[in-house]
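Researcher: Structure prediction, please.
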Amino acid sequence: MQGNQQPIIVLREGTERSRGKGAQFNNIAAAKAVADAVRSTLGPKGMDKMLVDSMGDVVITNDGATILKEIDIEHPAAKMVVEVAKTQDNECGDGTTSAVVLAGELLKKAEALIDQNVHPTVIANGYRLAAEESINILKKMGMKVEFKDDKMLRSIATTAMTGKSVGPHKDYLAEITVRAVKAVSEKKNGKWVVDIEDVKVEKKNGGSIQDTTLVEGIILDKERVHPRMPTIVKNAKIALIDSALEIKKTEVDAKIQITDPSQLQKFLDEEERTLKKKADIIKKSGATVVVCQKGIDDLVQHFLAKENIFAVRRVKKSDMEKLAKATGAKLVTNLEDLRSSDLGFAGTVEEKKIADSDMTFVTGCKDAKSVSLLIRGGTEHVIDEAERALHDALKVTAVAIEDGICLPGGGSMEIELSQALTKYGSRVGGREQLAIEAFSKATEIIPWTLAENAGLDAIDVLIQLRSEHEGKKHKSAGINVTSGKVVDMAKENVIEPLRVKTQAINAATEVAIMILRIDDVIAAKKGAGGPPPGGMPPGGMGGGMDY
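Model: Predicted structure follows.
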């Protein structure tokens, strides 16, 4: 400001602004805080976190994505790191904590370089080069996974569940997981495609995790609609109906004037005849089981029960689609169109009492392309954590079948990358070499954290790992956290799909680069959004009401 010139105010009063290194370091600190929040959950010896929300609901988990989803995070840069965990979870199911911890470490190393006046754009370029090279290195080191190789697929599922609370039962659950994923796998254009949405998961308190079962068919958390219906139907022919088996209400407001009691009786008779016709259409089609997405009138229930037809109502749309896949039935929207060719087949449809509720089991389906998992456990929290562990295992097994490539785990790949990237950096040269070397050091955070969480001396473990990889060229040498020794991870059956590693590296690198490139943060004052549409003043409606 020169002389007596007035200062020019561009931003609204109360807006906060931070620039340059201050903004960068603030963002990096927030991202590191998120990484530190989940770091202690990494690996087989990782600990759990108890999260209590404002309503008092409790979640106990060591799943990185779940922890970050449940924590109410305010800082914008920290929210970007949470997105990494969400993406990793959607893409691969596993590796969420690794991705977040790696992102935090990349930013920590970048902070030191910014302090040495290396420009953030140079760091970003170096990180990009390092990430591309990492992906190439990992692809070369990949091991083939065959669809028929159940042992390898079980190892992949077991690795994903190691360290979760279901640990003691992981072998049993891995067996179930592989069977479920293989059941819903389809070959399209010479490639395997797996949609784990086709594996329906139902949870019921009681028993132990060992009582979890795989049903080659569908479990519906519904009971038959009428007590006189049979509880079990063998060689069932199943009709899936999308419309209500009730009298439709008129679209317009209508009034019926009745002047004579006999007219009322006729009206009621006609209603009964219409409903009986619905039951007759079902009987004529040859169906012995009816699954309805909407309601079933009491009279229709009575007529179906008389014909010994098993019926359930108000079934979710997603369950209807899964039933169609499992039984081969076609969804019928208009009841008039129901034909015997639309019916699906199941060996048995049975109502069973599980814990305190009746459930319908549709089993014995020929070549079922949709299956169900019934998870049991002592408490709700145990079941919820078992569900998260099974989700991770299902997803990684599906990814391994789709890609057909896997890698040894236990920090072996990260050490291999660290050494290969150091050599790659010296070939690239220039200032980018500093960033590539920083990236190579950052990858070591995974074995470091694995050792730290297991109560081992992280420095000793890293030295051992480096000598195995560098001196003895043991590319799959990783850390066995139980014995504290460096062993061959491929022989130990600690195996992860390639996509888990590549996705984690890509996501962590992208978020680190995005945060590094921010040099100016302009934050509006809370609640300073100006008058909303309609012209109401920012102060609310007056009268002391706080909006």
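Model: The radius of gyration is 30 Å.
Researcher: Thanks, that helps.
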